[in-house]
Amino acid sequence: MTETLANPLAARDHARGMEGTVIESMPVLPPVADDLPPEVAPEDLLWEETIAAGGYATRRLARGSRLRLIDLRGDACASILLFNAEMPTERLNVADTVKVQWNAYLGEGKLLLSDMGRVIMSILEDDAGTHDTFCGTSNPATNAAKYGNGTNSGPYPSGRDRFLLGAAKHGLTRRDVHPCVTLFKGARIQEDGAITPQIGPFEPGRTVVLRAEMDVIVVIANCPHVLDPRDDYTVTPLRASAWRGPVTTEDDAVRTATPEGLRAFKNVEDYFRR
């Protein structure tokens, strides 16, 4: 290590010698996966990445794309930001997502709505059932209080700081980091108003599949839930796969499930009619 610090040529040779090194948490380039749905051609795979514990990832996905998230070991925590890729001032609105659907608990068939009344993504499949629209993600202060260190470069990075890094890759700034939804870790509201976190750990392999209803920017932070009661910084890798898919049709069951959802889909279709 000392030689690579003092000698740029040694540093170069060391870096080149790392070619071909494979670790679990990294993007696969070009993307390859052996467990795609049978109707998906290998050439339609757009993204294949395992997001490290405490890590983040981001991608721009075209309308119709499917995003599959897998909780590989039962303790992943996928906090998500969504933006209209064409006009990032339009983004996920968690309050409207809850209010318009008369339901605060996400699952199969539920919608993620933007602040313009449009469906930004929809949930096609969900065998997890533990998700959170209430609590948001951790920040440097909460992590410093709980773990003793909340810095982005330290051992216990927060979800908010990971969001900042992901958003910056698209030219977005701190002011663009908005309230998120969290998948795989849940929160339930009791009759007395108390929040009961659903933290697990759960069975490995739980899966959520989302469909992009617009061209979207997705930012994912895989950091412990802000209400995780465990003393240790506990989170495990999260797998993300995305592939091309057809745009939602007029007779789609998710589109037509409720009057409120149908209106939000019509708002999307009006947007693309320009």
Fold topology:
Elements: H1 2-6, H2 8-17, E1 45-51, E2 56-61, E3 66-71, E4 78-84, H3 94-101, E5 111-113, E6 119-126, E7 131-132, H4 140-147, H5 159-168, E8 181-183, E9 186-189, E10 195-198, E11 206-212, E12 216-222, E13 238-243, H6 259-272
Structure notes:
It is a single chain. The mean pLDDT is 95. This protein has a six-stranded antiparallel β-sheet with strand order 1-13-3-11-6-5. Strands 2-12-4-8-7 form a five-stranded antiparallel β-sheet, with helices on one face. Strands 9-10 form a two-stranded antiparallel ribbon. By secondary structure, it is an alpha+beta fold. Helices cover 20% and strands 26% of the residues. The protein has one domain. It has six helices and 13 strands. The longest helix is centred in the last third of the chain and has 14 residues, at 259-272.
Could you write a compact summary of the structure shown?
The protein is an alpha+beta fold and 274 residues long. The protein is built from 6 helices and 13 strands.
